[in-house]
Specification:
Blueprint: H1 19-35, E1 65-66, E2 72-73, H2 78-87, E3 91-95, E4 100-104, H3 106-120
Antiparallel strand pairs: 1-2, 3-4
Length: 137
């Protein structure tokens, strides 16, 4: 199967990810574990302009993504976050462009375990850093 080309011009590096990236990663990981990697698109923030084949709402909205430094990336939805995760080596996109199926890579499994531990210890998505360094919200 061909590798999916990302519509993201320049992926956001994992060191800048904030609440939106990490909560999306946790959601996708749960769908991999419980639903064979098939996401429920109604649970994702999808821009009809950016990803018309995956969108579930007909209205046009600019969906921003919050980063860990308090800044936002405008016009960057959960599919863009997933593309960043693929670029970082955490996920693989299987299936088709409009019927995605996700799979964790070995690195993705390691990071998912760290994220589960962080959340289990009372941490927030916004403060997660897979390197173990503290991130201020």
């Amino acid at each position: 199967m061909k590798k999916r080309k990302s519509p993201v011009r320049k992926p956001i590096p994992m060191t800048r990810w904030g609440k939106d990236h990490w909560s999306t990663f946790a959601y996708v990981e749960m769908r991999i574990v419980d639903y064979a990697g098939v996401p429920n698109r109604r649970h994702l923030r999808v821009s009809p302009k950016r990803h018309p084949g995956l969108a579930h709402c007909p209205w046009e909205v600019d969906i921003p993504t919050r980063l860990n430094d308090g800044k936002v990336r405008n016009n960057h939805d959960d599919i863009d976050c997933i593309d960043d995760m693929i670029a970082a080596g955490l996920l693989e996109w299987k299936g088709t462009g409009i019927n995605p199926i996700f799979k964790l890579t070995p690195l993705g499994k390691e990071v998912a375990g760290l994220l589960r531990k962080h959340k289990g210890d009372g941490g927030w998505f916004a403060t997660f850093d897979p390197s173990g360094k503290a991130v201020s919200p």
